Amino acid sequence: MKEKYFKLEIVTPFQIIYQDKIRHVRMPGTEGSFGVLAGHAPFITTLGIGEIKVELKDEIRYFATSGGIIEVLPYTTTVLVETAEEASQIDVERAISSKKRAQKRLKEKSPDTDMERAKIALQKAVNRLKISKKS
Question: pTM of whole model > 0.85?
Fold first, then answer.
């Protein structure tokens, strides 16, 4: 009988954020969202800014991520990310502050401002705020 669960690890350069046997995960691929189930064909791809949705037996957990790389093997999936925060761990005030700061930079259009970096900062802040509501 085919195994229904597989091991998921979400890892940053500093720590393991999450590790468990899960049923399904949905990720924000740079080419579009995708899901992984146990027994999935192996592949490696990149992740963008977005939501990681982890489905366990009787629970769903949400993580905000700023992008990274995922390696999928039939019964182990490893997500290597710059940052990942579980919905309940997101500092909403900090995310609001980051959003306002990025919006201000984009509005001012100063020659000293890296506009692309400000756009990415805004995307990350908006994503963190959206995911924080799922806790």
Answer: yes
